[in-house]
Amino acid sequence: MNRSIREATFILIISHLLSPQNLSYAADAMDATQSVTYNQTLVSAGSIFELGFFSPQNPQNWYLGIWYKKVSVHTPVWVANREAPLRTNSSGVLKIIAPGILVLLNDTNHTLWSSSGGGGAAGNPIVQLLDSGNLILRNAGDDNPRNRLWQSFDYPTDTYLSGMMFGLNSVYLSSWKTAGDPSPGEYKLYFDPTGYPQVFTERDGAILHRIGPWNGLVFSGTPYVTDDPSFKFGVYRNEEGRFYLRDDALDQSVMSRVTLSTAGALERWRWVDQTQEWILQMSVPMDNCDTYNSCGAYGSCFSGGYRICSCLDKFEPKDPKGWPELDWSRTGCVRRTPLNCSARDGFVKYSSLKLPDARGSWYDERMTLKECREKCLKNCSCTAYTRLNVSEGGSGCLLYFGDLADIRSISKDEQDLFVRMAASELADSAGKKNVKLIASVTIVGAAVLLSVSIVLCMWRKKNKNSVGRIAESHGSDLELPLFDLSTISKATNKFSIRNKIGEGGYGPVYKGTLRDGQDIAVKRLSENSKQGVEEFKNEVIFVAKLQHRNLVKLLGCCIQGEEKMLIYEYMPNGSLDNIIFDRGNGISLDWPTRFRVVMGIARGLMYLHEDSQLRIIHRDLKASNILLDGEMNPKISDFGIAKRYKGNDQTEDITNRVVGTHGYMSPEYASRGRFSAKSDVFSFGVIVLEIISGKRNSSYSQGDFNHNLLAHAWAMHMEGRSIEVVDWHLQKSEDFDEVARVIHVGLLCVQQHPRDRPSMTSVVAMLSNVENEGEMPRPRQPGFFMKTRTLRCCDRTSSDNEMTITVLDGR
User: Fold this and answer.
1) What per-residue confidence (pLDDT) applies to 698?
2) In this structure, are residues 173 and 202 in contact, taking their beta carbons and an 8 Å threshold?
3) How crowded is the C-beta side of 174, counted as CA atoms within 13 Å?
4) pTM for this one?
5) Rounded Cα–Cα distance for residues 675 and 670 (Å)
6) In whole angstroms, how far apart are CA 530 and each of 53, 533, 640?
7) What is the rounded distance in angstroms from the CA atom of residue 584 to the CA atom of residue 302?
8) Using CA atoms, how far apart are residues 581 and 693, in angstroms rounded to an integer?
9) Which end of the chain is less packed: N or C, by CB atoms within 10 Å?
């Protein structure tokens, strides 16, 4: 111990001994005759929070703060003297002085911090630490929250706690300067009630991120912020009509906090007792589209595209240079047809968008949507309107004025935005023809109808022959519906970037809606696709001939010129990877749902291997190729590189071209090009462990097992600690015996040697029979072939944040 620390300790001890009526035990309150010094604390009644002195990293600086009492990791949630630390050569004392003020004094009686500016004088003041983490100053005997003299919840630092009324009394969060310095940093997070409630993060006065506006259920554009069922999250009004944000714990045993990090990220953390660590549940920003107004006025941000910015439909870039030179955040977009405030103006509906910045907007909570439209139409400055509250059937009106800023595409379609448009841009204006023009068109139409019919018949015959040639080359009597290119183009809004829902090795995938209202997914072969005609043939033949409830359904195809497209049934819940690896979505996936997904994939794969007329090895089974319908039923998709086989589980084939995805390929396939049905079994096992853990195998890192998830899961299972593999959302599940059994089955599927892996028929049997755990064999060491191992003769290309490996063997 160096001299300065010894001196500081001596002074603090003397100060403690000479200070009368110090707290000698961990009480939750003290009165004006008591004080708290360096070695004493206040502890809330339920022993959840503790107040006292602490040093974050630098032993030279000490602070008065509040932290969690029950957790093993020291986690401060509030700091009093952020800008005036106690030095090691100075003692500190917390006490109440007249007329009812809480003060922190150093050894020279200098005030480092105080609660001045609170509720005024008190007759018999006491300070109390509540189980909510709120430090309150009140009169003894008066428990009415309205009569509190002061409370720390009105002066937070970097942490928001459940129950805090965020937004009242100018409450805001400010980040720590560094991890070891709690003084105010560069970032500030605040609730802005101007216009309609939103949450902003700013740096030195410049807005970085925006959450909102509030729509009665969630903050628009960030639905994952409210996806924790342990909490009731919402925006409310106080008696004065002022908005505030509140997050109330429905499960008092759950410890959760929201922080503004030193890097300016809004993060939600949850404590997990089993692993003794804080787990990150949510973080904003999630991607580049969370950057404020990244695409400028009327520009929409889409994080899944090769370019993130595009103009809303019926708008165009303001800068004629266009993309990619366009500075979207500065210029944005403008209407193709300017407004002139005509009575014939109308509105175009836009869906699946984060609503624009609502500062300066106007609202009425009682208006209907029709009244809202009329109100906007009568005001030339009104540029858009929307329903204010989407809960309980919807109500209210929110009007926008001026340019619309900070818009992004989102997958959840919960609130429509109606944007003002000139009459010439409205869809129904095209139908308002003059009678003479209609007559002329009718005559001309009659004249050309016959020739159009002939051309159409020839086109259909040509394209039917194209599909027929594909079927003939595979020895199949394939009958597949054909779609016109114009039909698909119209259904996808001319393949708009707003309709794009994904992209794989084949090309982009778009959501579309046919004239009869049926939703479809359109898989379009791109010019630079890594896949080609052979893969297209595979999709047409295999998916059309395979019929199973756990395989995606092919509705038809479109072959016209260079265009080759496959039309599938639309899966509203997207792909499995977007659910289990997403912080917001994963929380809603309970164990019964995950088990149903595992069973569905297993049954679909068993059908491919055992029961279908074609007997198929998929070869690219992965989480992103599992689609989920509206009821979360899984559908195996993407048969572009699938292969037929004779049906014997042990039958192996060798390929000179290994195409698959990093993290899912079996060792024998990735290293030697050998594949069989057991290769699919290995991939299935990886998916099972990913579903249970919520972690990607290809990017897994945990202690000594930084090479893959499989190694960690096997080690934990062999030590009887399988719970450490399980996603924390499931760790309190009453079905843990079933979870453990599924982990066992997953580990059997990922064993190193193909001969050790079970068939899919055996897998389905093991998953279905809850009594067979004792009969299952002990899993051997899994395949450790992962990214740390070097491949020879490998050409690697990256796609969709997953590593696709191609091995060209010289044999």
Assistant:
1) 72
2) no
3) 16
4) 0.56
5) 9
6) 61, 11, 11
7) 18
8) 9
9) C
Which two tokens mark 528?
């630079």
- Eight-class DSSP state of 575: B
Lookup result for tokens 């009575």 = 343
* Average pLDDT value for residue range 47-69: 92
pLDDT digits (tens, 9 = 90+) for 385-437: 999 988 877 889 999 999 999 998 886 656 899 999 998 888 544 444 444 44
Amino acid at 28: D
Q: What are the backbone angles phi and psi of residue 596, rounded to the nearest 5°?
A: -65, -35
Q: Which residues of 509-542 are buried (b: 16+ CB within 10 A; e: fewer)?
A: bbbbeeeeeeebbbbbbeeebbbeeebbbbbbbb
- Token pair 């009415």 is found at 144
Calculate the alpha carbon distances from 426 to 337, 420, 421, 431, 498 in Å: 11, 10, 7, 10, 19
Rounded Cα distance, 336 and 212, in Å: 28
Q: DSSP secondary structure string, 696-754?
A: -STT---TT--S-HHHHHHHHHHTT-GGGTS-GGGTT-TTHHHHHHHHHHHHHHTBSSG
Look-up of token digits 């000179």? 656
**Segments of the chain assigned to CATH 2.90.10.10:** 1-153
**What element of type H or E holds 117?**
none
Cα–Cα distance between 328 and 322 in angstroms, integer? 9
Dump pLDDT digits (tens) for 668-690: 887 777 888 999 999 999 999 99
Most confident range (mean pLDDT) of 224-233, 429-438, 739-748 is: 739-748
- Cα 220 to Cα 3, 212, 223, 237, 695, distances in angstroms: 57, 5, 7, 19, 27
What the block records as the tokens of 554 is 């092919």
The predicted structure's pLDDT at residue 803: 38
Residues spanned by CATH 1.10.510.10 within the chain? 576-808
* CATH class in words for 1-153: mainly beta
Measured CA to CA, the distance from residue 189 to residue 183 in angstroms comes to 15
> What is the distance between the alpha carbons of residues 253 and 518, in angstroms, rounded to a whole number?
45
Residue 298, token pair as written in the block: 């009327």
Q: In which band, very low, low, confident or very high, does the pLDDT at 90 lie, cut at 50, 70 and 90?
A: low
Fold (CATH) for 576-808 = Transferase(Phosphotransferase); domain 1 (1.10.510)
C-alpha 733 chain-centroid distance: 23
Look up the CATH number of domain 450-569: 3.30.200.20
- Residue 744's pLDDT is 94
**Strand segments (E) across 573-673:** 616-617, 626-628, 634-636, 643-644, 653-654, 657-661
What residues contact residue 516 under an 8 Å CB cut-off, 6+ apart? none
Write down the pLDDT at residue 652.
59
Q: Is the dihedral of CA 210, 216, 221, 222 positive or negative?
A: positive
The overall average pLDDT reported for the chain is: 79
Which residues does 611 contact at the CB level (< 8 Å), separation at least 6?
Answer: none
**What kind and span of H or E run contains 551?**
none
Catalytic residue numbers, as ranges: 620
